[in-house]
């Protein structure tokens, strides 16, 4: 494309014209219409073509340059710069992607992306106190009030006195376990569970008792048997969009589970990482039994992994102990990231980000079902899939063969407390684009259509 052929499609409904120019550049670069190295029209030429002031175009180009979209070369003109997302993404030599990480998918809304960054820059109105003072462990009250509003959508009636802010799900789990357990204690978990919880439990020298699951999640009868035999100090579970199996526990089973917990006086740690992405999810355990459930809602999956913020709703009267545990383990959540999260939520931007992630999740779920027509389990709102591995393949051989061509998936061993089933987890959000996801899933499907011996490169 030459400099003379590009002309932006402008709309002033979202703000000034100069920002519309920058947004149009971002959109055309993201779509591939403007390739890296394309020379853009001169500012004066574009102003004439659009019949607008030269200064407006100049401001638009300056805004695009500040976003890293374009660069000026003295005496040569203005050119499309290499996209930051392309440079920063770890791409395998084959051009495929590592789907072992369970990341929310990146969306292509450049206007929203810009406003997300602007919200962070606007925090200067809070002055030096945000930058030069320690805050309370568990979060300052203003952030806790915002967190309460966010959680109240899933937990009606929750109060800010019961809500704390922690350094991500890991920080929250570490703090809650520090309150509920001592080294050598037993904690019940689903037979396939979140590797991060396994890591925290190992660090705290806890024993994990795996509980049997079926297609609807954890079996309450298995929990009751463990309560009788192992005398656990807590139950950790993920009732909504379970990681890795994607199963969601129905409401009647949640009530049965709570009945067991109440009967044996066992506190429950509910990991609700995906709840905000599933509008019709069943009632959380913490809404059924707020007196016994510690509800952990990370923002990493529904908003941004970079925030490292989780909101924790604790039973009444337990806030101080959990806050002290947060102080002992992590001192406090980063005030900057907590403030960004609060600003996104207060302005409604968090809802926009979540909605964009949900739309992208829906698109990628369609790609999974169209490209990999096997028995992979996936659910609306999630961005991971669970694939049982059929003979003659084994999970180890499949993971190894995929890795050799640059595709990463996770074997069930990472989640299994006892025996691991023949299965792998696929992260649908790690691919930088839908096309990358299609290519990676096509490789996976092609391998599964062959016998392992047919595709080997060992000599």
TrEMBL record:
Keywords: Aminotransferase, DNA-binding, Pyridoxal phosphate, Transcription, Transcription regulation, Transferase. It holds the Pfam family GntR. Residues 15-83 form the HTH gntR-type domain. GO terms for molecular function: DNA binding; DNA-binding transcription factor activity; pyridoxal phosphate binding; transaminase activity. SUPFAM superfamilies: PLP-dependent transferases, Winged helix' DNA-binding domain. Signal peptide: none annotated. InterPro entries: Aminotransferase_I/II_large (IPR004839), HTH_trans_reg/aminotransferase (IPR051446), PyrdxlP-dep_Trfase (IPR015424), PyrdxlP-dep_Trfase_major (IPR015421), PyrdxlP-dep_Trfase_small (IPR015422), Tscrpt_reg_HTH_GntR (IPR000524), WH-like_DNA-bd_sf (IPR036388), WH_DNA-bd_sf (IPR036390). It comes from the Bacteria. In the C-terminal section; belongs to the class-I pyridoxal-phosphate-dependent aminotransferase family. PANTHER family: HTH-TYPE TRANSCRIPTIONAL REGULATORY PROTEIN GABR. This is PLP-dependent aminotransferase family protein.
